[in-house]
Amino acid sequence: MAGEETELLVGMKNDGELPITIIAIRASVHLPFDHKLLVQNLSAQGFNNATVPTSAQATFPYIFAVSKFLQPGSFDLVGTIVYEIDQHPYQSTFHNGTIEVVDSGVFLSMESVFLITLGIALLVLFGLWVNGQIQNLSKKTKRASKVEVGTGTRDASMDEWLEGTSLGKSQSQKSKKKK
């Protein structure tokens, strides 16, 4: 978690003929897509020349904390142990992999709120769609009864008021053509 201490245990096995003197352990955090970009250089922890005798193994704790201002996400952690064999300094990378940094102290992040809201909205839309499909399937198709528009007989006295208009003239021409 960002801003909180994390303990990393580093194991060292001596298969050589000389004792190993442990000088320090250090680590750094890098961006996963470009390892050249250093995000945070973590503190080095000294061990006051602790030794690992021949044919033995030892475990050393390394306590570190990434910055509390570090954005949550994936980062590369590179851990290195610095040691001496017969007064010659060496270093060995014991970890070079991805770590997940999570935000501490926040119950709900904006991303979580967005995803929850999106999920609820999609469920509501799906429910409305299913409801509409059920209503379409359960609807009984009603046959519309014929509606009478006007009378079936044409009486000349009903069209008196149209005489002299263009409609009246076209109807009189139609009646002449029918005869």
Keywords, separated by commas or semicolons:
179 residues; alpha+beta; Immunoglobulin-like; 2 domains; five-stranded antiparallel sheet; two-stranded antiparallel ribbon; 2 helices; 7 strands; 23% helix; Translocon-associated protein subunit alpha; TRAP_alpha; membrane; endoplasmic reticulum; transmembrane helix
The general outline is rod-shaped
Into which percent range does the helicity of residues fall? 10-25%
SS-derived structural category = alpha+beta
How many independent structural domains?
2
Low-confidence stretches: none
Q: What can you see in these coordinates?
A:
By secondary structure, the chain is an alpha+beta fold. The protein has 2 domains: 6-101, Immunoglobulin-like; 106-136. Helices cover 23% and strands 38% of the residues. The strands form 2 sheets. Strands 2, 3, 4, 6 and 7 form a 5-stranded antiparallel sheet that branches. A two-stranded antiparallel sheet has the order 1-5. The mean pLDDT is 83.
Topology:
Blueprint: E1 6-14, E2 20-30, E3 38-41, E4 45-52, E5 56-64, E6 73-85, E7 88-101, H1 110-138, H2 166-178
Antiparallel strand pairs: 1-5, 2-3, 2-4, 2-6, 6-7
